[in-house]
Design brief:
By secondary structure, the protein is mainly alpha-helical. The chain has 13 helices and no strands.
Length: about 325
């Protein structure tokens, strides 16, 4: 039969070349798809592993904080457990929030602010108020020393303290600093996790790309089968490295084009974001690991200025506060 137009070998006519070209193209597409899937799997695994690691880190930090309160601030512990759990749960929800599954409820900044605002009455009543500290608090009904450790106090008393929180600033600058660093680091980590997943989704779409350029299909035929068409033993007559590189470079253009120019910018941003998130100074890991210490610093600050706080609270109508917890 008539020799094929691409290889011009005596063993392959045009129909044979067409079939071999189709085979070479499918093999190439299969190989590229395999590597894309492998790369996509790496991205997805990286996102899941880092997410699980951060969530585990928050649970460890939460346990440390609860233990700290139960041992160092034992009188505050019963009424502090739920706010602490809410704070950490919001951190976890903020980390895994996505565009498809947005954060439910209040955002992290609001929850952090609410945490300290609601912590103030507990800290004041159990760690600052001089009667409590000196054990002179008395039950109004019996006159005996009051057992205040596990009991809440009247809402009027609590509300009055909450309303004075902004003016008194009992925890100094710790709440503002903690809120700023916590929101910043959690947001950065959340963005990184979303970005990695979005990168995996881009690669998923790339699997649908195929080879359509005639020049590429012919080049694949030439690289893989022209030697055989010309009676060379294909096991020994391998195409040279330069030809293989040129064919791969030319045939991958369609895949690279599908990624568009934004991909290089995207990957550069990912690298920069990883460096920021993994920083040992102000990254998410350092922030979560130091959370218990920062909360303790806030309470210690309030205790240090306790006498001043008592005077300020007294000046705002302490005589109207019930001195004892409610039953």
């Amino acid at each position: 039969g008539q020799r094929g137009l691409v290889c011009g070998g005596v063993c392959c006519d045009e129909e044979t070349e067409r079939q071999l070209q189709e085979k070479a193209t499918k093999n190439f597409e299969r190989l590229v798809k395999h590597h894309i899937r492998s790369q996509r799997s790496h991205w997805e695994q990286a996102a899941n592993m880092y997410k699980d690691y951060l969530l585990q880190l928050t649970r460890q930090s939460e346990n440390k904080t609860l233990i700290l309160f139960s041992t160092v601030y034992s009188k505050m512990s019963p009424l502090s457990r739920e706010p602490i759990r809410e704070l950490y749960e919001t951190i976890r929800l903020s980390l895994v929030a996505t565009d498809r599954v947005p954060l439910a409820g209040d955002d992290l900044a609001l929850v952090t602010s609410k945490f300290f605002r609601n912590l103030f009455p507990v800290a004041y009543h159990h760690a600052i108020h001089s009667d409590i500290l000196h054990g002179t608090e008395r039950d109004e009904r019996t006159g005996n020393p009051a057992d205040v450790g596990n009991r809440d106090f009247l809402s009027d008393y609590k509300n009055c303290l909450v309303h004075t929180y902004t003016d008194l600033k009992p925890f100094g600058m710790v709440p503002q600093q903690l809120s700023g660093s916590l929101v910043s680091t959690v947001s950065a980590a959340s963005v990184l996790l979303r970005a990695i997943r979005e990168g995996a989704e881009v690669l998923l779409k790339l699997e649908e790309v195929g080879v359509s350029a005639p020049s590429c299909r012919k080049a694949l035929l030439r690289m893989n089968y022209c030697g055989s068409c010309k009676r060379y033993n294909h096991l020994h007559a391998k195409p040279c490295a330069g030809l293989c590189q040129n064919v791969m470079r030319g045939c991958l253009i369609e895949y690279v084009g599908a990624l568009n120019k934004g991909w290089s910018t995207f990957t550069e941003a990912i690298v920069s974001l990883i460096s920021s998130v993994r920083s040992t100074v102000d990254g998410i890991e350092a922030e979560i690991k130091s959370l218990d210490a920062k909360l303790s610093n806030a309470i210690m600050h309030a205790m240090e200025i306790g006498p001043q706080l008592e005077k300020q609270v007294g000046g705002r109508g302490r005589s109207h506060f019930p001195s004892l917890s409610s039953t």
